[in-house]
Amino acid sequence: MAGLALAVVGAGIGGLTASLALARRGHRVTLIERRTGFTEIGAGLQLSPNASRLLIDLDLGNALRRVVTEPDGVTIRAIASGRDIGAVALGAFMRKRYGAPYWVVHRADLQRILLDAVRSQAAIRLVTGRSVEDVADTAEAASLTLVTANGARETLVADAIIGADGLWSKVRACLGETALPTFGGAIAWRATLERSRAPAELAGNRTGLWLGPHGHVVHYPIAGGKFINIVAIEQNPTPVEGWAAPGQRDTLLAQYSAAAPALRALLAEPSEWLRWSLFDRPVGRTSKGRIALLGDAAHPVLPYLAQGAALAIEDAATLAVLLPADPHRVPGLLDAYAESRRARSDRVQAEARRNGRIYHASPLVAFGRNMVMRQFGPERMTTRYDWLYGFKVGG
Question: Is the CB of residue 90 less than 8 Å from the CB of residue 72?
Fold first, then answer.
């Protein structure tokens, strides 16, 4: 039986991965992106083994190995004193335990590799410069009304529609999930820096995690080790607009005025910082009839567990395995897909929220946190996430 005709809305990491995985399963995919280009603002992301193994299964391993970095571990430090609190085992330990690497990558590099793979698939039609105006669903088919920047409209009919259109998903709203995401009072600052410009003690092949009561900082090498990606969290009651609002370095340095010298020096190096606000939302309903969601459209994840991209990649791989060739079975199996992802998505969201509280603990609570991290040691700090990193589709 011929594959389904599918529409995937959103060409971010989740939408690109889903389109590729679905096409490899014999389906015909129209991938719709509201942007007209694919320039990705510089930022890094982490591909833990639950995600990297799925990308390798899609035959992207060789391309990714040319651009990723594989940190040896995570060094956890106190922001104010700079003292080591603990460590997390990555590198060879991760590979041996989970059968896949823990990579860090420039988002633009991952997007380019996925986009090249999508463009090489005859079964995928990429449509840009179109926004979703409306979604309709019947027993026999689903349809999208798309609109261009100049107001031209078109209708696309498909056996199923997959909403991978991010936190402010229009497809999600068409499922009746109209509650807006909630701002949690934190803004993330991001920058990239040539590795040679970083303080020597922070320029090695390790991820740095700095913890304090009013925020935290993460940094790691990307682009094959040429650059360092830096993310700093600022507690702020007022959100910023968009995903790339400019930030003044002096404002961030004032937030971290009491930081250890090495961290202050690292934060002072980048001349350009971009900011985005951290929003949260419970999973809610993620399928209805011939419509389903994946990635941030289904379950935004706060960045305190580094699982936003990974969870979207898991969604894509799971959907590709479960979606049938028979169009009459689509509604039931989309519901099965949504149900199969719910408990895990809930758990990942909850763990990310918990990590945020732990990272920003008050001094008294932080004292106990630091003792536990030291007692655990690097390997146990990793194996407590066996449930997360060991994920396999159908496993």
Answer: yes
Q: What is the pLDDT of residues 339-362, one digit of tens each?
A: 999 999 999 999 999 999 999 999
Number of C-beta neighbours around residue 129 at 10 A: 16
Task: Write down the catalytic residue from 220, 256, 304, 337.
Answer: 220
CA-to-CA distance for 306 and 318, rounded, in angstroms?
20
Could you tell me which residues come within 8 angstroms of residue 363 by beta carbon, excluding any fewer than 6 positions away?
A: 213
Are 187 and 236 spatial neighbours (Cβ–Cβ below 8 Å)?
yes
- Residue carrying the six token digits 């330990």: 93
Contacts of 157 (CB under 8 A, 6+ apart): 5, 141, 142, 143
Pairwise CA distance, residues 360 & 69, whole Å: 28
Give residue for tokens 């926004």: 131
Distance, CA of 37 to CA of 31 (rounded, Å): 14
Give the DSSP H/E element, type plus range, for residue 374: helix 363-383
- List the 73-78 sheet strands across, edge first: 84-89, 73-78, 207-212, 215-222, 227-235, 182-194, 273-280, 245-247
Q: 306: exposed, middle or buried (C-beta count within 10 Å: 0-12, 13-18, 19+)? A: buried
Residue 391 in contact with residue 50, Cβ under 8 Å?
yes
Give the C-alpha separation, 164 to 130, whole Å. Answer: 14
β-sheet bridge partners, residue 74: 88, 207
Task: Kindly report, residue by residue over 200-220, the tens digit of the pLDDT.
Answer: 999 999 999 999 999 999 999
Q: Is 389 a catalytic residue?
A: no
Q: For residue 149, name the pLDDT band (cuts at 50, 70, 90).
A: confident
| Residue 96 near residue 89, CB atoms below 8 Å | no
Closest by CA position to 360, among listed 303, 275, 281: 303
pLDDT digits (tens, 9 = 90+) for 359-378: 999 999 999 999 999 999 99
Question: Any idea which fold 5-180+281-389 has?
Answer: FAD/NAD(P)-binding domain (3.50.50)
**Taking a C-beta distance cutoff of 8 angstroms, is the pair 173, 215 a contact?**
no
Structure tokens at 226: 């040429």
The angle formed by the CA atoms of residues 41, 163 and 40, to the nearest 5 degrees, is 10
